[in-house]
Design a protein that fits this description.
8 strands; globular; Rossmann fold; single chain; 37% helix
């Protein structure tokens, strides 16, 4: 992995996967993972994207191999700034930005607050913020604090993955990988994200946007995604019927192909 020291001193880790032709200038795709995630959760996306794009996968602060943020080092603004500083570090003026769940909310925030840095936006299973949703995030934090991340996910896995069709080995890996996130980080990260509301500034997203949502998401019903379609001027909306929340993990090939299709169509115009 590569290391970037953020402007507040925290060390961030990231991966770069690039199998593009070295004599051509390739666009960069920045992937931002969900809460309890890491860059490794996008591992299966890489073969679909890295032949045509330079793929950058960031471990968001407090997750994966990145450093744990101190008392004044965790905010929504700081998560967006981390992405901007990574693009600066890599010498990328504008990137295609794609995010999953909480990472999708950060991606939306980037397109709103740093529009010059976002070429296209793709949001997977991500509402426009978590403030105006029905999910009991305070209950999440309490259960994680009592039982740990792994036990919480084991109890609620059906909200995230179709366990009837999923490989049991994948389910175990998903839980173990997510449980690498420290409880004390999630105890701060989840309430912070739960206060984010991007509904009003959605019309400021001027770049082309792809929105992919799970049709059977117990965490977020279709009505919670509706403001994106209603307010973003250039938005393509795709529903994966019958699937619970974590489509980017349970259906990585399908999601990556969807993103590649979207990017290829935009590049053709």
């Amino acid at each position: 992995m590569h290391t970037l020291k953020a402007s507040d001193g925290l060390e961030l880790r990231y991966e770069v996967d690039d199998y593009t032709d070295p004599w051509r200038e390739a666009d960069t795709v920045l992937l931002l993972h969900a809460a309890m995630g890491s860059s490794r959760r996008f591992r299966a996306w890489v073969p679909h994207l890295a032949r045509d794009y330079r793929v950058v996968r960031l471990d968001q602060r407090g997750h994966g191999e990145s450093g744990r943020p101190g008392p004044d080092q965790l905010s929504f603004e700081r998560l967006m700034l981390d992405a901007v500083e990574l693009l600066d570090h890599l010498g990328v003026d504008r990137a295609h930005v794609a995010g999953a769940s909480a990472g999708g909310i950060v991606s939306q925030g980037l397109a709103i607050h740093h529009p010059a840095r976002v070429r296209t936006l793709a949001s997977f299973a991500a509402t426009p913020g978590m403030k105006k949703v029905d999910t009991d995030y305070s209950g999440w934090v309490a259960r994680i604090g009592r039982n740990g991340v792994a036990a919480f996910l084991r109890e609620t896995i059906a909200d995230r993955i179709d366990v009837k069709t999923a490989d049991p080995g994948f389910v175990d890996w998903f839980i173990a990988e997510s449980a690498r996130t420290p409880v004390e980080v999630l105890a701060r990260f989840v309430p912070m994200m739960a206060g984010v509301d991007l509904q009003d500034p959605l019309p400021r997203i001027a770049c082309p946007m792809l929105v992919v949502v799970p049709g059977a998401d117990p965490l977020h019903p279709p009505s919670e995604y509706a403001p994106i379609v209603e307010r973003v001027p250039d938005c393509e909306f795709v529903v994966y019927e019958g699937l619970p929340h974590n489509i980017t993990d349970a259906e990585p090939d399908r999601c990556a192909r969807e993103l590649h299709r979207f990017l290829s169509a935009r590049r053709a115009h």
